[in-house]
Amino acid sequence: MKVIxxxxxxxxxxxxxxxxxxxxxxxTLTATSDEGQISYEAGVSFFPHNAPDDFGISYDAxxxxxxYSGKGRRSKKREQQLLAELQKVIDEAASDLNGKVFWDKALxxxxxx
Length: 113
Fold this sequence. Notes:
The protein has 113 residues and is of the alpha+beta class.
C-alpha cells in the first residue's frame, strides 16, 4: 500500500476540543493506492499552537472525509479537482468539531507531493 500526501499545510484556526483551545490546524489531502484501487482523504487536525514554533499535532481533534475512491491510479487532473474543492470539504469536516480554519492565514508554505 502506498500513502502519499498530495497536499499539506498548517493554518491559523479556532477550535476547543476536550476543553483545550486550539489555534492551529493541519490540513491534508492524502492518496492511498493498493492493487489498482485509489482513494483520497481530506483531513483536518486542530492543535494548540500556543507559540509561533508550536506545531505539536494532537490527534484527538481530527476529522476527515473520503473525497474519492475507485479503481485507478493517481491522476493530476483528479487531484487538481480535489484541491479546488478542498476548502469546502475541510470546512464541513471542521464543523463536526466546532472548528474553523482561517484559509488566508497559512502558518507555513503548502507542501505538494
